[in-house]
């Protein structure tokens, strides 16, 4: 089976990392079959022999030591990604062709207060749904038209997260042959 690490804040602003350097850090820590997908902090590897919580902490520490900036890591199993994609909380009829659908990975399921803070940001351009440790964000129009951002999402939830477009998730599922078995 495979595990995917979604890394926050890789290759944005001043946090540029070569993918071969990123792979090397994980290989040096004993992770196997390490592959990167596009340049935005998506790493696929064989399931770790340690718990996900331990692996996230190890990866966070090693990346910060190597690259000099904090890199939050969110691990999900391949089967979990498939199940998430299949259980999208938005109906196809709700998603306009001009819309963008993002899946944000967070560490803990947002509590009622965090959900209420996020709900205050919902409007005709931005709709949110929360499923466990995942926040779905449907941006109904083009990027420049929405005033909402990932940073605002993190402030509303009071925890770090990292978002991926659902097309990236689907492409990874296909490329790596993930199943929910």
UniProtKB/TrEMBL annotation:
Pfam families: DUF1697. This is DUF1697 domain-containing protein. It comes from the Bacteria. Gene3D superfamilies: SP0830-like domains. The lineage of its organism: Bacteria, Bacillati, Chloroflexota, Chloroflexia, Herpetosiphonales.
């Amino acid at each position: 089976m495979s595990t995917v690490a979604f890394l926050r804040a890789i290759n944005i602003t001043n946090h540029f990392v070569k993918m071969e350097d990123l792979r090397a850090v994980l290989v040096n820590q004993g992770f196997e079959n390490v592959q990167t997908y596009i340049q935005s902090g998506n790493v696929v590897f064989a399931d770790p022999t340690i718990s996900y919580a331990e692996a996230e902490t190890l990866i966070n520490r090693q990346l910060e030591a190597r690259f000099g900036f904090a890199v939050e890591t969110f691990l999900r199993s391949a089967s979990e990604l498939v199940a998430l994609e299949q259980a999208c909380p938005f109906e196809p009829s709700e998603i306009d062709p001009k819309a963008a659908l993002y899946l944000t990975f967070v560490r803990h399921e947002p509590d009622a207060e965090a959900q209420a803070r996020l709900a205050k940001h919902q409007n005709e351009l931005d709709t949110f749904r929360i499923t466990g440790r995942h926040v779905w964000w449907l941006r109904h129009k083009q990027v420049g038209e929405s005033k909402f951002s990932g940073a605002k999402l993190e402030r509303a939830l009071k925890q770090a997260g990292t978002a991926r477009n659902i097309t990236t998730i689907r492409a990874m599922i296909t490329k790596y042959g993930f199943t929910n078995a």
